[in-house]
Amino acid sequence: MKRNNAMDLRVIKTKKAIQGAFIQLIKEKGYQNVSVSEIALKAKINRNTFYLHYDTKDDLIKKMMFDLNEQIQNSLTFFQTLNTKNYNEISIHWGFRNILHLIKPNIAFYQVLLNDDSLRGYINNLYLVIKKFLYEWLDIKNAAFELIFEYAANGTIGLIEKWILDNTFDENKTAKILANLSVTILKQYYELNK
Fold first, then answer.
1. Whether the predicted pLDDT of 92 surpasses 70
2. 20 to 30 A Cα–Cα from 102, which one of 74, 136, 165, 192?
3. The whole model's pTM is what?
4. Burial class (CB in 10 A: 0-12, 13-18, 19+), 139
């Protein structure tokens, strides 16, 4: 049993080294200019080890994005525990804080996704997942609120992007601002649906 645990830890360590090297190289050279050989060299592994885990650099980024999408979706399930009619700023603040707390350890990867135009599609897909979840959670049926929702969703995404790129704002204060704005939007939603 100990041998399997040691193998699992080595696999995890190797994957982290590969992913860390990949992120660093994208920062330095841009995604299009990074090769598998360079990733292996920077990660201090041989190319065959890379290919044990990933087929190509495209496969690597897709798997990294899959993991991030899964983490974000799991974090969003917190919002499902909230009844939209009985929302409060504290609970919404907690939800946003969870999301930001989840992003923080992967912030270098998010920065790369936002700064490299060839990777922008990956982050846009993540936004679509979040927007679809919130759209369904809020059960939007009112055309006017649909416009308000789009405005709020894009503003929220913009604020989160600023937080990621600047990496200087306090996570808790950012979550509080997002919660405050969300409560304002939800109040507007219920005003429209009276």
1. yes
2. 136
3. 0.82
4. exposed
